[in-house]
Amino acid sequence: MPAIQPSPHDDLNPLPDQEFRAIIRHWIQENYPEHLRNPQRRLHISDGREWYEALSRQGWLAPNWPREHGGMGLSPSKLLIMIEEQERHGVARLPDQGITMVGPLLIRHGTEMQRQHHLPRILSGEIIWCQGYSEPNAGSDLASLQTRAMRDGDDWVINGQKIWTTLGMDADWIYVLARTDTHVAKQKGISFFIMPVTAPGIEIRPIRNLDMHDEFCEVFFRDVRIPAESIVGAINSGWSIAKNLLSFERIFLGSPFQAIGALDHMARLVEHLGRGSEPRIAAMLNELRMELADHQSFYKSFADQVRRGEPLGPDVSMLKINLSVLYQRITDHIIEIAGEHAAILEPLPDDRSLYPASAFIQARPHSIYGGSSEIQKNIVAKQVLGLGDNIA
Amino acid sequence: MPAIQPSPHDDLNPLPDQEFRAIIRHWIQENYPEHLRNPQRRLHISDGREWYEALSRQGWLAPNWPREHGGMGLSPSKLLIMIEEQERHGVARLPDQGITMVGPLLIRHGTEMQRQHHLPRILSGEIIWCQGYSEPNAGSDLASLQTRAMRDGDDWVINGQKIWTTLGMDADWIYVLARTDTHVAKQKGISFFIMPVTAPGIEIRPIRNLDMHDEFCEVFFRDVRIPAESIVGAINSGWSIAKNLLSFERIFLGSPFQAIGALDHMARLVEHLGRGSEPRIAAMLNELRMELADHQSFYKSFADQVRRGEPLGPDVSMLKINLSVLYQRITDHIIEIAGEHAAILEPLPDDRSLYPASAFIQARPHSIYGGSSEIQKNIVAKQVLGLGDNIA
Amino acid sequence: MNDALHPDDLDRQQQLRMLIESAKGIAPRHGDFTRLRGLRFSQPGFDRDVWTRIAEMGWLGLRLPENAGGAGLGMLEYAALATEAGAALLPEPFIEVQLAIDMMGAATPPSVFAGDEIILPAWASDPDGLGFDGGVIVGRGGRLSGEKRFVPMGAAADRVAVATNAGIFLAAMDQVGIQTLPLQDGGHAATFHFECCPATPLEGDPRPALEAATVANAAYLLGVMERAFDITLEYLGTRRQFDRLIGSFQVLQHRAVDLKIQIEITRAVIRDACVALDGGNDAQTAVSRAKTRAAEAAMLVTRQAIQMHGAIGYTDEADIGLFLRKALTIGNRYGSASWHRARHAALTERDM
Amino acid sequence: MNDALHPDDLDRQQQLRMLIESAKGIAPRHGDFTRLRGLRFSQPGFDRDVWTRIAEMGWLGLRLPENAGGAGLGMLEYAALATEAGAALLPEPFIEVQLAIDMMGAATPPSVFAGDEIILPAWASDPDGLGFDGGVIVGRGGRLSGEKRFVPMGAAADRVAVATNAGIFLAAMDQVGIQTLPLQDGGHAATFHFECCPATPLEGDPRPALEAATVANAAYLLGVMERAFDITLEYLGTRRQFDRLIGSFQVLQHRAVDLKIQIEITRAVIRDACVALDGGNDAQTAVSRAKTRAAEAAMLVTRQAIQMHGAIGYTDEADIGLFLRKALTIGNRYGSASWHRARHAALTERDM
C-alpha cells in the first residue's frame, strides 16, 4: 500500500522509484476496469473510453510528454516502471498514436498554433489519431512510399494509398507521410501531414486479419485537399522527423510482456488438459520458463541502459528478434499440445480464457511488424557487427 | 546363405537383386578383416592393404568400371546394393581416388597409352592416387583456382599449392587441376594433369585435423616439370571433365550411413551411462530414430531413381543438406548427455568403443566438404526452385 | 524427383498419374478459392453437388475390393488423391467418409458410394490420439449412450458410424443430439450425444481404417504445404523490396530450400507408410512417422509462408492464410505429432 | 551495451573496468596462442610462473573477505575475470583453485594465496552434475577411502581439498593415488584414489562454492564464445569467395547476428546470476540458467565458428578450433545444460 495517494497532475518524478511503482500499481488496481484485463484482442476506443478518460482526468495519459504540455514528464526510468506496471496488471493498449507519436512530434516540430489546437484535444480524448505510413508496395522498405502531396495554391492535394493503419476506424485525425519531391533520394523527398479523416476524398476500409479482427485499415486518398498549415515541420523533412521520434521506445518491442502472457496461457492449457505430469510436457514448460527468464535478463540489460539515461543503440533490435522467436515458439507448443482444440475458431467452450488458435495466430505478426526479423537482422549485421552491406 | 559362390571376375549383373545382395553380403563377411569394422577414423592404405588386395583378387575393386577395363561393370542399382552392404558391415573406405575418380576419367578421356599404363596399376594396388583440386584461396569457389601449368617446350611446368588432399601421404600419383589459360572465364582455362608425387618440386605435408588425424594434406608444386602426355583430355577442358564425372555418386554424400553409426554410438553411450530410463533421453532417442528413419525414406526416393536408371537432378543436394543437419544433431546430443566424458581426448577408458568427442568432431566437416551446406542451398535455390541469382 | 508418390511398378505409376489428372476437375492445382470462401463458416460447409461428382469419380470406397463396391485401389492411390485434395483445400469430408467406409467395409450401404447418403464416422472422445473406444457405452439391445466428439463436418451426416469397444454401430441422426463448433478452416466439428440411441451393429474393425485415415490426413497436409509453398515461391519471384525481388535475398532463398526439403521428406515418408499399409501389417511406426512429419512440416511451411509474405500474409483476404488455417485445423486430427511420437516410442521400445 | 557485466553502482563499474584492464597482462584479448599450444598435452599443462603472477594480482581468494586473506570482491568481479580468462583460453586452473579456496574459506593456507602451493578441489564422482558427496567415505580418524574423478589439472595438485558428505578434508598428495586422462583442450583430468588416506577436516560448505564455480565456468565460456565470435567476424571481413567478402553474404550475416544474440543473452543471464549470488541466497535457479545458456551458446558459437571458417576451421592448426575444443572440454563441467535444466525444473516445481 503506497504511502500517499497521488493528486491529479502531481509531479511524480521526485519520488523514489519504489514508491513511484507502488503508487502506480495501486492506482491502476483501483481504476482499471476489471473486465478489460488481459483482453484477447486489441481494444477499440469505444471499449476503452472509460480507461482513457480515467487516465486523462488523473493527468497520466501522456507519461512521455513534458509537464508544460500536460504530460507527466517522466524520466525514462520512471516511464519504464509505468509501462511495466501496466503490463503486469494486464492493461490494454489504447489507440495511442496521438499520445506516443503525434504529441511528441508536434511538441518538437509543430507550430504554436498546431500545438495549441491539438495537444489538449489529444489529452481530453476528443481527437483520436491514426497513422498513415505503410503502403502496399513499400512494406519493409518504408522510404519507397508513393503517396504524393502536390502543392496547389495554398492547399496540398494528397493522392495515394496507405495500409496497416492500426485501428483506423476509431480515428478522428490521421498523420501521413507523403512524397513532396520525386527528384531526390527517396528518404529526402518526404513530408509529414496531418488531416481529419473526414476530409473529402479519404476513405478508410477495415482489413480483417488472420485472427478475424479488424485491427488494421487501408486508407485511400483521392484528391484530398488540405490547407497549407497541414504540414508539420519543413517540407521534405518528414522522413527524419518521423524516424527520430522512435528512441528508447524501441525497447518495448522486445518487452517480455507478450511471451509472459503466452506462457501463462500454455501453463493453464496444460492444466486444463490434465497433462502437467507428462514428463515431456513438464520438460517443455521448464525449458520455456528458463528461456523466458533469460529473455527477461536480456531485457533488463537494456532497461538498465535506459535507467542510466544512456541512449539505446541499434543493438536493441536483438531484443525484438529474440522475443519473436521465443513468443512464437511458445505458441507453437500451445498448438502442439492442444490436440483438436487447436482447430477451434472461438475460445474453448468449457473455459473461455483458453484460446489456443488465437494465441498462435496473434504471435505471427511479431516477426513482421515494426521491422521484420529479417530487416532487424540486416540492421544488426550492418550497424552492430559492421558486416558489409552488399545486401540491403 | 547365397546359392552360389561367386568366382573372381564373374559378371554379377544378370543376378536378381536379392541374390546379388546375398552374395555380396556373404563374401564381405567371409573376407573383411574383423578388426577393421567400423573404424573410428579414415584408414591409411597401410592399414587397409589386406582388404584392398582381397577385393583386387576377386575383381571387385572397381564396381563402377566397365568390365572390359577390369571393373565389375555394375548397373547403378547393383552398385547401390554393393555400397549398402559395405556400409551395413562397417567396411572402411579405402584410399579410393584411383578407383572412383582417375579410372573413370581415363576411361572416358584418357589416351590408349594412359589407360594401358594406369588402369591395371590401380586395380592391382600398385599405384594409389590422391586428388589435387582445392586451394587455400579457392575454397567452395573451386573454379577460382590459381595453380598454373605453363607449357615449356614438350613439358608442362606446374607451380602452385593444393590443399585438403585426402590421404595425400598414402599416394603414389596425384591428379591436379591447373590453370592453363588466364584470359578466359575462370572455368574455361583449366586443364587436368596426372603425375607421380615423386616428381621433383612436389612436397606433401600432412595437416592434422580437429580429430587429431592426418586425413588431409597440403601439396606444394615448385617448378614441377612433367612431360606433355601428363595432360588428360584437351587443354582447357579440365573443369568440364572433372565436373561431369560426379553423377549419381552424389547420392552417397547423403547416405544415412554416418548418421546410423552416430545414433548407434549414442544409444550405446546412453546404455553405458545407465540413462536409458530418463524420459527426456528416451524421448530424444525416439525422436532421432524417427528422423533417421525419415531420412532413410528420403534416401530411398533418390535411390529408386537411380534404380530406375533415371539421372539425379540438382535436387539430390537436399539429401546431403538434411543428412548434415541430422548427423550433427545426433552428435550434439552425444555431447549433451556425455557429461565429463565429452571432454576426453581418447575413447572412454572403460569402453573404448565409446568416443563422444571424436563422434562430435567427425560430424563437423559433413556440412563443409563436398560443397558446404550453404553452397548446396544456393544450388537448390537456383536450380531447383528457380530463385533469382543475385546471390552467387 | 517428380510429384507422384513413386511406386516401383510402372503400370501403377501410369494409373496414379491418370487418377491425379482426373482429380483436377474437383481439386485443381491452380484454381482460386472463391468457392471455398463462399462456403466458409456456413453449414454444412461444403457442396453436395461437388460431393456427387466425387462419388461419380469413384473416390469413395476406392480401397474397397471391387466385389464390395469399391475400386480395389491401394493406399498409394488414396494418398495421391488426398494430396490433390489438400492442394486445393477441398472442403468436402472425403477422408472422413472414406474412414467410415473403411470401418464398415462390405457392409457399407451402396447409397454412400453413390454420394446420395453421407455416413460420417464418430470415434474420438479425447482431444488427441487415435483412441476410439471411449465416450460411448453399448447398452442392452445395442443402444448407445454417451458422446463422441470432434466429428469434422458432423452436421452433414445422414447417418453416423460409431466406433465403440464393442464394435461398430450404425445410427440414424434423428435420435442423435448434435452440437457444432466452428473451426479455423471454415468448417466445423460436431459433438454427437447418444441417449439410449438405437443402432445397428456392423462387422468391422476401426483400427486399420484409422491408420489409413491418418496417412490420408498426412497426404492432405502434404498437398496443403505443396500449394502454400508454390504460392510463396511465386510471391518471392514477383514481390520487390529495396529495388530487388525478395526471392533474390539469400536468407529467403535458403529458407525456401529448407521448406522444400521438409516437403520432399514428407512425401518420401508418406510413400513408405503407404507401401507398408498396402503390404498388410505392422505399418504403425511408418504411419506415426508420416503423421508426425506431415503435421510439423505443414505447420512450418505455412507459418513461414505467412512470414515471407509479410504483412499482407496476416490478412484474412490473402489466400496464403487459408493454408495456415487448414494446417492449424487438421494438423492434430488423427493424432498430433506429439501423440504419434509417443506411440512410435511405445511401439519401438521392445526392439531397442 | 558495452562489454562489462553492468552493475548499477558506478564505483563498482569503475573497479570492474580496472580489474579487466589488469587482466590483460595475463589474459590478453588479442594475444596469440603460442604459449597455449606449447603447453597442450603436457603435464601439468600450465605455467607456474603465470600462476605466480595470477596470485600476485590478487585473483586467488578474490571473493574471500579481506580479514580472511581475500580481496573482498563479489561474484560480478569474479565472473568478469573468468570471462577474460576464457577469451584468452587461459590454461591455468584459476576456477578450480578458487573453488578450493571458496570451500575452505578462512581455513585456506596463506601459501595458496601467494601461489606457492596449489590446492585443487576433488568433489565429483559422477560424470555429470554438482553432486559432491559420493565416491569417498570418511572412516575412523577422518581417513578417506574411495575415489574422486574429473579433477581438472589434478596432476598439478600439491594438496587436495576433498568434499565428502561429512564435510571438507585436506589431504597431502603423497598418499593419494592419481591417474590422468588427457582432455580435448590440451589439459587433463585426474582420478584421485584414496585408501585410508589421512586428512585434516576443515570447516566449510562446498555448496555455495560450487554454485560460484558454476557461474565462473559459465563466464569463462562467455569469454570463449566472445573471442571465437570476434575471430570469426574478422574472418568474415577478410575471406573472399566468389569475388566477394564472405561477410557480405546475407545468410552468414544473419547467422552472425544469431550468435551475437546468444552471446549477449548469456552475458545478461550471468550478470543476473552474479547479482543473485552476491545478494546472498536462492541463486540456484539463476545459476542453472546461466550454466545452461552458457554451455549451449558456447557450443553453438564455436560450432558455427568452425562452419563459417570452412575447411580451414577443421584443421588443428587454425586457432578457431581451440575454442571448440575448450567448449567441448568445459561445457559439461559443473553440470551439463541438461543436468541444470533438470535442476531448474526440480527447484521451480513447487512454485507452479
UniProtKB/TrEMBL annotation, chains A, B:
The keyword Flavoprotein applies. Keywords: FAD, Flavoprotein, Oxidoreductase. Residues 130-224 form the Acyl-CoA oxidase/dehydrogenase middle domain. It holds the Pfam family Acyl-CoA_dh_M. Residues 18-126 form the Acyl-CoA dehydrogenase/oxidase N-terminal domain. SUPFAM superfamilies: Acyl-CoA dehydrogenase C-terminal domain-like, Acyl-CoA dehydrogenase NM domain-like. One of its GO terms (cellular component) is plasma membrane. Residues 236-385 form the Acyl-CoA dehydrogenase/oxidase C-terminal domain. One of its GO terms (molecular function) is flavin adenine dinucleotide binding. Its cofactor is FAD. Belongs to the acyl-CoA dehydrogenase family. This is Acyl-CoA dehydrogenase. It comes from Paracoccus onubensis.
TrEMBL record, chains C, D:
The keyword Flavoprotein applies. Keywords: FAD, Flavoprotein, Oxidoreductase. Pfam families: Acyl-CoA_dh_1, Acyl-CoA_dh_N. InterPro entries: AcylCo_DH-like_C, AcylCo_DH/oxidase_C, AcylCoA_DH/ox_N, AcylCoA_DH/ox_N_sf, AcylCoA_DH/oxidase_NM_dom_sf. SUPFAM superfamilies: Acyl-CoA dehydrogenase C-terminal domain-like, Acyl-CoA dehydrogenase NM domain-like. The keyword Flavoprotein applies. Residues 45-91 form the Acyl-CoA dehydrogenase/oxidase N-terminal domain. Residues 214-329 form the Acyl-CoA dehydrogenase/oxidase C-terminal domain. One of its GO terms (molecular function) is acyl-CoA dehydrogenase activity. Its cofactor is FAD. It comes from the Bacteria. Belongs to the acyl-CoA dehydrogenase family. This is Acyl-CoA dehydrogenase. It comes from Paracoccus onubensis.
